[in-house]
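User: Show me a protein chain along with its predicted structure.
Assistant: Here is one chain, sequence first, then C-alpha cells.
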Amino acid sequence: MPDWRDEVQDLPLEIRIKAGLVFELAADRVSGQPVEVTSRALRAVAVAEGIDSRHRWIDAAAAEIAGASAVGPRQEEAT
C-alpha cells in the first residue's frame, strides 16, 4: 500500500497540514487496532477537521496505524 504522505502531496497545503494532524490524533487513540477501527477513527477525525473523509490517503494511513503496534513488539522481542 502506498505511503499516505505520498497520497496527500497533490492536495492543497491546508489539507496536507490537516491530514498530518488527523493522522497524529487518530494514531494516539487507536494505534495497533484493526484497520477497520483505525479507518473509522481517521474518517471521524477528518470530518471533525473539515476534510473529505473519502480521500485515498485515509486507507493508507489506517493501514500504517493498524500495523504500528504489530511491528514494534516484534522488533523488541528480536533484540
